[in-house]
Amino acid sequence: MNVLVIGGGGREHALAWKIAQSNKVQKVFVAPGNGGTARDKRLLNVPITDVKALREFAQAEGIELTVVGPETPLAAGVVDEFRAHGLRIFGPTKAAAQLESSKAFSKAFMKRHNIPTAEYETFTDAQAAHDYVNAKGAPIVVKADGLAAGKGVVVAMTAAEAHEAIDFMLLDNKLGVSHNEGGARVVIEEFLQGEEASFIVMCDGKTVLPLATSQDHKRLLDADEGPNTGGMGAYSPAPVVTPEVHARAMREIILPTIKGMEKDGIPFTGFLYAGLMIDPQGQVKTLEFNCRMGDPETQPIMMRLKTDLVDVLLAATANNAEERFDDFALEWDRRTAVGVVMAAHGYPMSPRKGDVIGGLPQDTDDAVVFHAGTQMVDGLITTTGGRVLCVTALGGTIKLAQQLAYETAKGIHFDGVQYRTDIGYRAMAR
Fold it and tell me: How many whole angstroms separate alpha carbon 229 and alpha carbon 67?
């Protein structure tokens, strides 16, 4: 069968890499792909991003299964477009994708369905937002209501930082974000204490299949210092998600979300990512929802997945309810996977593009370099974005996986490269 993966980042490279391992698959197209998918002889890049053009390509090439990686085409309704023409696709509809594309929609949904989350208010008026911060004090969290490529959240430790974020997002709208009704809007919510984890599941509209737990590192610098980023590395499994926390997250957050979406008339299909805040007592609250897998969490998760991903995706998109994944059991490599993001000079505020990447190794069973912001030009791989590569490795312990990831990363070079040296440190401290 022919499979299409929509997207061009590290998450999509990892999904396509895993899908290509299935003996059911003849061709894997990646639209638009990147330099890493261009290097892989099992994958074919397609320079298409327009929703209608993607659907027409799928029809022309006899694509039997499509998987959507990033949030932008989901919010643009790519799933609706494909389904309207009888094409099999895994992802949420445009209406369901509001769980990510609108923070205000998501928070109101959680409040309506009693899903634990931070106290919040929503604002379009800057002065009202400033007054709210003055009344509540800091620390406090300011979020742009819309898609901002992982950069629309400011954890303000002082009131001054919060006021600056409000002006940046509302008055100046420097992020260029519009919520679903147009214009700029922010959600301001209480600051939650604890440890974050990524809880990702697959949904077929009714049934939920949890993936391996993971944890990413958002800050640019070691010891969680520096500005927020889209993610500087991740590891799986996440020891902070104990069996008790896992059960609580499923019972209090994931299952009520799936049931609530169905009750609201917008059943959720696709990857559902709940960003969790776990307090020292093991209580869990929802920081946010994403309607796709995380990046860089996907890379270590795919490294550990032993089950044929295509089998799972076919079950999740089956028309016959009996074929869905009620009884599916995923098999995981017991080892730990660590992914280290190598970022461009100037990331996250002004990443430089066009630097040539050298020293890229051959992938092995235990270490794979997934590409994100890269392209192939005249046989050379060059940087095209902020997060360039995710060097991902398996090891019998978190320390061994970390060592192999960093040994691999040290052989790769491009001007201005920056990466953290402590990915996985939280797990090692446990």
Answer: 25
Q: What is the pLDDT of residues 38-72, one digit of tens each?
A: 999 999 999 999 999 999 999 999 999 999 999 99
Tokens of 350: 């002004």
With a CB cutoff of 8 Å and minimum separation 6, the contacts of 231 are: 150, 216, 217, 218, 294, 295, 296, 297, 341, 387
Position 152 scores a pLDDT of 77
Q: Closest by alpha carbon to 1, among 227, 306, 314?
A: 314
* Structure-token pair, residue 142: 């300011």
How many C-alpha atoms does 377 have within 13 Å on its Cβ side? 10
pLDDT in tens, 187-231: 999 999 999 999 999 999 889 999 999 999 999 999 999 988 999
What are the pLDDT digits (tens) for 63-74? 999 999 999 999
* Rounded-to-integer distance, Cα 381 and Cα 117, Å: 43
Picking from 244, 416, 423, 262, the residue whose alpha carbon sits closest to that of residue 336 is 423
Task: Please give the structure tokens belonging to residue 239.
Answer: 């020891």
Q: How far apart are CA 330 and CA 105, in angstroms?
A: 32
Round to whole Å and give the CA distance between 163 and 129.
8
371: its two tokens: 């590409």
Cβ neighbours, 10 Å, residue 357:
21
Q: How many CB atoms lie within 10 A of CB 174?
A: 11
- Whether 336 and 401 have beta carbons less than 8 Å apart is answered as yes
- The whole model's pTM is what? 0.92
